[in-house]
Amino acid sequence: MIVREIKCKSILTKCGIEAVDYAINPYVGCGHGCVYCYATFMKRFTGHKETWGTFVDVKVNAAEVLTRQLRRAKRGSITFSSVTDAYQPLERKYGITRACLEALAGCNFPISILTKSALVLRDLDLIERFDDVEVAFTITTLDDEVRRCFEPRSSPVPARLEALRVLADAGVSTWAFCGPLLPFLSDGEVEIDALFGELKRVGVGCVLVDSMNLRGAAWGRVRKTLEAHYPDLVEGYRALLTDRKPYHEALMERARRIAARHEIGRAHV
């Protein structure tokens, strides 16, 4: 992993996600190495030539800059993070995300955290101090062997589920992003039913589901993973390149039906 310490000029940025005002991305790049990651487009703006997942820039002055920006920022919702994972492995060493949360304490901004790392529990003492906060985990499969292939340096699935349980027991609002569900591996009736059942068990309030999008550079990375671990699935995935819409619509309908069966509140699928 190539690690650089950099200085940022801004950390609280306008967010293009619907119903979210700001994003905080404490890092450039991500050490989780998820093969389907959509955020590789960031390389066009950062000048990185390295393979996505092999570099991380650490915004070492992020908390200082955030404190300065908050003095004149209009109140709005904040998401950690839109193009990185705020709790990727380097956060354990640098604590940039924790420092940003400390800067936000008392500011009364609604906070949403989306991660694949159980490290978020380290900051539960801070998270509990916010009046309006939610924590979500991306969980694309219950099979941890599949997880190792597609999300190699992320937290194991059981650790994510346990983190969700701990957060819910502490009174923190939780939800799950089940996206992308993996074609032929975690998108079937049985697999989704088991996944939603586990999410219900650990107190998840709602789910957001998405299908695999293989446009751009993602297809090359996913294809290599399939060739190494699931070669019989390559052609099935290739078919999604030509027309994803029918598959996506069928998956959404399946997810809606199963979510209703488990009575997962406010299911966004």
Give a verbal description of the structure:
This protein is an alpha/beta fold and 269 residues long. It is 38% helix and 17% strand. The strands form two sheets. Strands 2-3-6-7-8-9-10 form a seven-stranded mixed β-sheet. A three-stranded mixed β-sheet has the order 1-5-4, with no helix packed on it. Helix 9 packs antiparallel against helix 10. The longest helix is centred in the last third of the chain and has 18 residues, at 245-262.
Task: Explain briefly what this protein structure is.
The protein is of the alpha/beta class and 269 residues long.
| First and last CA, distance | 35 Å
Rg of Cα set: 18 Å
Order of helices and strands: EEEEHEHEHHEHEHHEHEHHH
> What integer is the average pLDDT?
94
Helix content: 25-40%
Structural class: alpha/beta
Total beta strand runs: 10
Shape: globular
Poorly predicted parts: none
Number of H/I helices: 11
Main β-sheet, in a few words? 7 strands, mixed
State the strand order across the main sheet. 2-3-6-7-8-9-10
What is the beta-strand fraction? Answer: 15-25%
